[in-house]
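User: I'll paste a sequence; please echo it back and then give the predicted structure.

Assistant: Echoing your sequence first, then the prediction.
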Amino acid sequence: MLYEITHRSAYRYSQPVFLEPMTVMLSPRSDATQTVRSHELVVTPSPSKIARCTGLDGNNTDMIWFSDLQDSLAIEVRTTVETHRGDVFDFLITDQAALTLPLKYEPHLAFVLGPYLSCSSNECEVAEFARAIVASAQAQTIPFVMQLAAQIHDRLSYLLREHGDPWTAVETLRRGQGSCRDFAVLFIDACRSVGLAARFVSGYCVGDVAADTHMHAWVEVYFPGGGWRGFDPSRGAAISDEYIAVAAGQRPQDAAPTFGSFRGEALATLEAAISIHPIDNAPARPATQ
């Protein structure tokens, strides 16, 4: 599938402020699941510099900074992306020991994946929740992650929560509801509690209820032989070609679309607008840098 995405964020300040360097992660990645055909970042007012970088998890990152006081800031990204994940299970797990849970990666993988195996909470409720699903899945790895996504989707109520950090996994369980980012944190901790490496992903989802103003969040799990594979507990399904991944990280804040601060006594407001349009029979164009 080929999609055209426009994402605009408009910041306004009640009086002029000095903008500290801002990190922008709004350029979708190009990998086995998707290819960026074109990408354009427009910043108003014009910054002093835009430096393009590659982050720790391979995320495309733009660092922008300014030299003058500003009372507004607009960031607009226009991207064309082709997705390739038609078959969500087009892989083999090459380590027989990884077919069942709890999973123990081979030493060289366990070392590299260490940050993605560390639970954010020591609360036993999440581990008990995961163990019950392990038993239901007869300790099989793939059935476990599919049932975990389905259980979160079926048992918890979806909540459109516009502001605030993600809740902890146990808080989401106790509340019985949560936003996509809350469900993702719960899924991650449940996976990590049974030895599965998992990371937080932010991006776009075609048909998402809040896609006109908000990005979506889901999870990627690492399988030997299959690499990072996506699952969406908000929909109870594996990630297909209706998803466009932008950034991933060990923690939700590692995949934040923008991060920055300002100096000055001012009130700040943010308005965001996102449009995602499928493009039929469009010729592929080379990516631009």
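The two ends are 22 Å apart (CA to CA). Helices lie at 107-112, 124-136, 141-155, 169-175, 180-193.
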